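for the writeup, i need someone to sanity check this before i put it in the appendix. the sequnce is what the collaborator sent (i think, or maybe the updated version? ugh). structure was predicted straight from it, no edits. if anything looks off just tell me and ill rerun, i have time this weekend
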Amino acid sequence: MNENLVRSAPSTLGLGVSNSTPEQVNALVAHLDTPLSACQPEFFAAHLAPLGEGTLDQCAATGRVPLP
């Protein structure tokens, strides 16, 4: 995906990721010129991994919005 093309779209307010581990997000951020503004972890009653793997902690530490 071309980041510049996505950022230049009039309807784009920010970039986000979905269903990614903190390590994957860190790897992506290292290659972006634009900061991520949101993260949508796979998080529900039967899947609580984001609590233990640091996904929600990473959102809090970086100011990213965790989306439901």
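The chain has a mean pLDDT of 85. The helical segments are 3-8, 22-29, 49-53, 55-62.
thx in advance!!
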